[in-house]
Design a protein that fits this description.
- The structure is a single chain.
- By secondary structure, this protein is an alpha+beta fold.
- It is built from six helices and 15 strands.
- The strands form two sheets. It has a six-stranded antiparallel barrel. Strands 12-11-13-15-14 form a five-stranded antiparallel β-sheet.
- Strand 5 and strand 6 form a beta hairpin.
- The longest helix has 55 residues.
- The N and C termini lie far apart (115 Å).
- About 2% of the residues have low confidence.
């Protein structure tokens, strides 16, 4: 074999090179498509995981407070004598255990409350026992000053521990200005709810100053009246101060008198929350009947409870909280960005959408913007501490 033949045998023809390039291109194309598909799937899973995590955290906070709402506090503080808590001695309106503000659009982005999204969440206020069910006993009450009994006179070991020097900070965190003090006279079977003005610990004896004197018979509070702190908590969907398109579900404590958020009390439970709807399940009892039954909800798909003839949930819940057996909470969270694959319809005009299209969210309302994914969870939470039945 001569030199030319050997060189030709060791090289590649143009056809062979072209075939090789085509083959490599096919392999690289397949790898790219596989990578792109995997990346898109990973992105989708990350979006769904973030939404599920947000729903889980926010839902647990809500459920925990709703299960405890009404414990060691007023259930119904309205002025209507036939519904108001039996034994509540105050002659003015006091906060009830739960208050619903429906369709609260204060401070929300315009695109959230207007077409095409048209999502207006509820706002919820709850009276929550802040003592972890550890009431204390008073030694005496003088004017607006409530004196707590010494450790050895307290009824439980938890109460005795709370009054030790080691637990001083925990005590002051529970009983603080801006919260309520719930007082109960077990002898006269009376109760009262008064805002706390200040708290002092003098020579080991805690003194709670109220914004006004209690209406209880103070002569019966010498070593017998029970007290515990109650905090007014609010759940609300609010707009982010730095991002007009971003909304969050926050939990905050409100001042007992001004109803303004207490400093450093606001906690963000979930970002990109777009809806919070609350409606109740109420019982019924015929006059003179021993047992009560849950009413039938004629339209479970709406955001009204099962109260017959009700046209607005808040009008029932805020007037008859003592009849609540359970609350239904719908919470919806959107993805942080639009998903171009999630196109329910090419026409984003809200008038042309169907009810099933509520699983989308238009970030800014512009035709060039994609749609964000939305996950909604409906939970039923029993309220055993709130239900008081009929008087």
């Amino acid at each position: 074999m001569n030199r030319f033949q050997r060189a030709r045998a060791c090289g590649f023809t143009l056809i062979e090179l072209m075939l090789a390039v085509v083959g490599v291109s096919v392999v690289l194309g397949a790898v790219y498509l596989s990578y792109r598909s995997s990346a898109a799937q990973y992105y989708q899973q990350e979006q769904e995981r973030a939404i599920q995590d947000a729903l889980r955290l926010a839902g647990e906070h809500l459920k925990n407070d709703l299960r405890n709402v009404g414990r060691l506090t007023v259930a119904n503080g309205t002025m209507d004598a036939q519904y108001r808590d039996v034994g509540l001695c105050r002659t003015t309106v006091v906060p009830s255990a739960i208050e619903l503000i429906e369709n609260d659009n204060s401070g929300l982005p315009l695109n959230m409350t207007s077409s095409p999204n048209s999502l207006v969440p509820d706002r919820l206020r709850l009276m929550v026992d802040d003592s972890n069910a550890i009431p204390l006993i008073t030694s005496r009450v003088m004017g607006s000053s409530v004196y707590i009994a010494p450790q050895d006179q307290e009824p439980s070991q938890e109460a005795k521990t709370l009054l030790t020097d080691a637990e001083k900070n925990r005590f002051l965190a529970m009983y603080k200005a801006g919260s309520f003090l719930y007082l109960v006279d077990p002898v006269g079977r009376k109760s009262d709810l008064v805002p706390i003005k200040s708290v002092q610990i003098l020579t080991g004896e805690p003194v709670i100053e109220l914004s006004q004197p209690t209406c209880l018979n103070v002569s019966q509070c010498d070593g017998s009246c029970r007290v515990n702190p109650v905090r007014l908590v609010e759940y609300a969907v609010v707009a982010d101060a730095n991002d007009a398109s971003r909304t969050s579900l926050v939990k905050r404590s409100l001042h007992a008198e001004t109803l303004q958020p207490l400093p450093n009390s606001e906690v963000i439970l979930a970002d990109y929350v777009v809806n919070l709807q609350v409606y109740g399940e109420y019982d019924s009892r015929a006059v003179g009947a021993l047992n009560s039954n849950l009413l039938i909800d004629t339209n479970p798909a709406d955001d009204l409870g099962n109260w017959p003839g009700a046209t607005q949930e808040s009008s029932v819940m805020n007037q008859r909280p003592e009849r609540l057996r359970a609350l239904n909470v719908l919470l919806a969270v959107r993805s942080s960005r639009e998903d171009p694959r999630f196109q329910v319809t090419s026409d984003r005009n809200a008038t042309n959408r169907v009810p099933g299209d509520r699983i989308w969210y238009d970030l800014d309302g512009q035709l060039s913007t994609g749609l964000a994914r939305v996950v909604a969870v409906l939970s039923r939470v029993e309220t055993p501490n709130l239900y008081r039945g009929m008087h």
